[in-house]
Amino acid sequence: xxxxxxxxxxxKMLQRSALCGASTICHDGTMRVPSWLPVLLGFLxxxxxxxxxxYLPAFPAIEASLHEPPGSAxxxxxxxxxxxxxxxxxxxxxxxxxxxxRPLIVSTALYTLTCxxxxxxxxxxxxxxxxxxxxxxxxxxxxxxxxxxxxxADGHEAxxxxxxxxxxxxxxxxxxxxxxxxxxxxxxxRWIFWILTAYGAGCFTLVCVALPDTLPPERRTRxxxxxxxxxxxxxxxxxxxxxHAALAGCGTFAFFAYLGGSSxxxxxxxxxxxxxxxxxxxSCALGLVSAAQLNARILRRFSPSDVLHVVAxxxxxxxxxxxxxxxxGVHRFAAVFMPLFVFxxxxxxxxxxxxxxxxxxxxxxxxxxxxxxxxxQFLLGAVSGLLVGLLTDGTARxxxxxxxxxxxxxxxxxxxxxxx
Length: 420
Hints:
The protein is an all-alpha fold. About 80% of the residues lie in helices and about 0% in strands.
């Protein structure tokens, strides 16, 4: 789909292509979507990883400022993941009923207000409560763009578009911790949340001004509560959905153990400064983004199923190495960082292909399917966040054990997938 001379024309073209399905694909098999659409969707999706990663370097500072014991800041991370799980299931349903645009307008406004409340929080408990509400709102920016992709494409084309979206979205985990670490050099940790407040306001403005609705009124569903649960039950009976969602969920469990555990390991265990940790974190995120772009090229020769088969096993080997070295008492930077870099980078292959595999048979209710998948991922993330906080001891042992469990679950889910 080519860019029109102005936004109104492009919007009509997008809506027409969403109705026609095959018309989103050129004769040479490439996607015809405006070049700005993945950028816009990536900017919205980045709310989630940006809000997660920016304040990770501030965990020790938050605990010291609020006079809380070490490891207590992970409570705010766990409630954030729990809020994302709740938000995913509700936002997907709302987007199937009211379209993709209106739920995003309301949610970005709520996100902006709750980020401001986090900046003013007087305790870990209050901070964690507002982080929960902020996550419920931020979930719209994570689940609805995936539904937009499914509105416009399927299979190989959707995987390529998802990889392009991840290029933009991936800038968040690279820049966010770096920004957070830089803020801590010059200002209090609360300024991190004021920056997120400004980001939320920017998202709200972009949705209001530029986001098209790819779900026309005639394709929207108005279901009763029972009908919605029947829809969820129908989705959950699809083996392809269950196994791909489980694969992504186990990857999320391991990834969030890394998110919650890496800051204490590198800052407290190895003595890195928050700004130094931000650079380490950003380098892993750069690996993830690079892998996502390589994924788009690899898919020209191999299927998403082939990619998942290989990458799940690479992740398991990397985490087995990390856990083995950690429990053997090897306390060296390279022994921790290199397996983590491999695992995080591989998520650039896992995420787009698992999402496409889970949603491919659910075009009629992509929002609900995307919401179910996201809810499962972030419930597992919340559990992982709580466990890694309890296991924090300045070494990589707790983080490595949880990541190994997640990697093993990925391989099991991959083996149970229906083969194309």
